[in-house]
Design brief:
6-stranded parallel sheet; binds NADP nicotinamide-adenine-dinucleotide phosphate
């Protein structure tokens, strides 16, 4: 609870309890004025659930700037008033600890200390009720070190990696028997960097269903915070009653960072990591590390994978479900099988990552592809690689194709009034826009008016997620759930 006065803190406690919190941490250092003993007694006695009293000093990343004597008086008062636990920093001498169950805490905001094991051992030698270690994560591998601590601990423990990359430690705390985890009442009320909200814990990350056997999946990328995949896959696991959780895993750009993450995960088979989605900027790093021999044929041709499956013996396999998602969205709308793309003229607009997956797959199934791109040299390069035609974007008005696929970001929110084509040429019967925000782009509106079949980026997105789900679980994907969650997310993002 990070409110700045006692009454607001009490109303936040009620809100947190209504959302399912069973214990609340009252951050007394957030109060605008140091609380009096009476105020503390009122706060603690009126809380319907157990209170952890914390008054974090500035030196440990908190807001209490007063003197140490005053701070300790506040903590003693909280203890006398019946706080279930009082949080005391590990540099506070034992003689100053209040007479109450203690959460002994150690923070490092700079990074993950080298000597985490020694820090835990020292803390465990004390008579604190719970030991808490929190440090800033540079990557998910640091979050795994927090889980190592939980597995090592012989007493109740909390081990948390802070920051976006530390999320894994906060969610999997339950899998590894942590004393608990910390959730913010809302996104704006975080008491530590990277802390998800209570609502996210419960509804997005399936906190209540996580247990020792829960399997782990995730999306590796940078940035990943806004990925829709966690919402889509977690809702699908729930719908299919699969004991698994899917997390965003922020891995900084660079092959070395990707490899460090994969090696750290491989060294910890107890994590239960069974699959990964891979997104920008790691799609090429992933195929390099997994090895093209362990990837499907089209992924090899594309030179990128977006899906990794990890078998029980730790073997990695790479796939590219982007192309499959796109091709199937197109074929399903046209009511044809992939092989019936052979001989059809297709204009692909764009020469980036999405275009590459589409061009590789369309060429593989025998379509006659022409690539149009703003930067002509990129179009030429791609065309040469996949044996198709190329042209500059200014020649698009002359196109003569049955199918048009937009693989640029033209028309994407907030630039929704743009379109890669100003009118639909008479030869065109099918228009596929890979952009899915907005759902009906200006290009698709023009295509509908011209009487064309329309394929939306939403279908491509749902198909690629469904293909991943099926690869990982061996079960049919709940596509309707995936579609509804995506629509809901898109509505929220405007
Ligand atoms: P990318 O690798 O960065 O490529 C971007 C492409 O768009 C390039 O060809 C670029 O041309 C072109 N472009 C960008 N802005 C332009 C402009 N103002 N005018 C003309 N051309 C422009 O990105 P990507 O990964 O291929 O993604 C492209 C789009 O595909 C995304 O915006 C997204 O909407 C869509 N997508 C959809 C899904 C899905 O599941 N539905 C999945 C992936 C991507 P230059 O080469 O000249 O820079």
């Amino acid at each position: 609870m990070t409110a700045t006065d006692i009454e607001s803190m009490l109303s936040d406690i009620s809100a947190a309890v209504a959302l399912g919190a069973d214990t609340v941490e009252c951050r007394l250092d957030f109060l605008a004025k140091p609380p009096t003993p009476d105020q503390l007694a009122s706060l603690i006695s009126r809380s319907p659930v157990d209170v952890i009293a914390t008054c974090r000093p500035v030196r440990e990343g908190g807001r209490f700037a007063g003197d140490e004597k005053k701070r300790l008086e506040i903590l003693h008062s909280a203890a006398t008033s019946g706080a279930a636990f009082v949080d005391v920093e590990s540099d506070v001498p034992r003689r100053h600890w209040p007479n109450a169950p203690i959460i002994l805490s150690h923070h490092d905001f700079e990074g993950a200390p080298e000597n985490l094991d020694a820090i835990l051992a020292d803390m465990e030698a004390s008579d604190a009720a719970v030991n808490k270690i929190a440090f800033t994560a540079a990557g998910p591998e640091d979050a795994m070190r927090a889980l190592d601590l939980l597995r090592q601990a012989t007493k109740p423990a909390l081990a948390l990696a802070m920051g976006e990359a530390g999320l894994l430690s906060r969610i999997l705390a339950r899998k590894f028997g942590a004393f608990g985890t910390f959730a913010a009442l809302s996104k704006s009320a975080q008491s530590a960097p990277g802390q998800p909200s209570l609502e996210e814990f419960k509804n997005l990350y399936r906190w209540d269903s996580i247990g020792p056997e829960t399997k782990l999946f995730g999306v590796v990328g940078c940035p990943v915070a806004h990925s829709m995949s966690p919402a889509v896959h977690n809702a699908s696991f729930s719908a299919a009653d699969i004991d698994a959780v899917y997390l965003p895993l922020r891995v900084e750009p660079g092959e070395e960072n990707f490899v460090r993450f994969i090696k750290a995960a491989a060294a910890r088979p107890w994590l239960g990591l069974e699959g990964l989605s891979v997104t920008i900027p790691h799609k090429h790093n992933a195929i390099a590390h997994v090895g093209s021999d362990n990837c499907d044929e089209l992924a090899r041709k594309i030179g990128a994978i977006n899906t990794v499956t990890i078998s029980r013996d730790g073997k990695l396999r790479g796939c590219n479900t982007d192309y499959a998602g796109a091709i199937d969205a197109l074929c399903n709308t046209m009511k044809i099988v992939r092989e019936q793309l052979a001989g059809r003229a297709v204009a692909v607009i764009g020469a980036g990552g999405a275009a590459r997956a589409l061009v590789a797959a369309l060429s593989y199934y025998g379509a006659k592809v022409t690539i149009y791109n703003r930067t002509v040299s990129r179009a030429e390069q791609l065309a040469e690689e996949f044996d198709c035609q190329s042209a500059g974007l200014e020649e698009i008005c002359k196109l003569d194709a049955e199918i048009v696929v937009n693989c640029t970001s033209i028309g994407m929110h907030p630039d929704a009034e743009s379109s890669s084509l100003e009118s639909i040429p008479p030869s065109v019967k099918v228009v596929f826009d890979t952009v899915y925000n907005p759902l009906e782009t200006r290009l698709l509106k023009l295509a509908t008016q011209a009487g064309c079949l329309c394929v939306s980026g939403l279908d491509m997105f749902v198909n690629q997620a469904a293909a991943q789900f099926e690869l990982w679980t061996g079960e049919p994907a709940p596509k309707n759930v995936m579609k509804n969650v995506t629509l809901e997310r898109l509505k929220c993002s405007g």
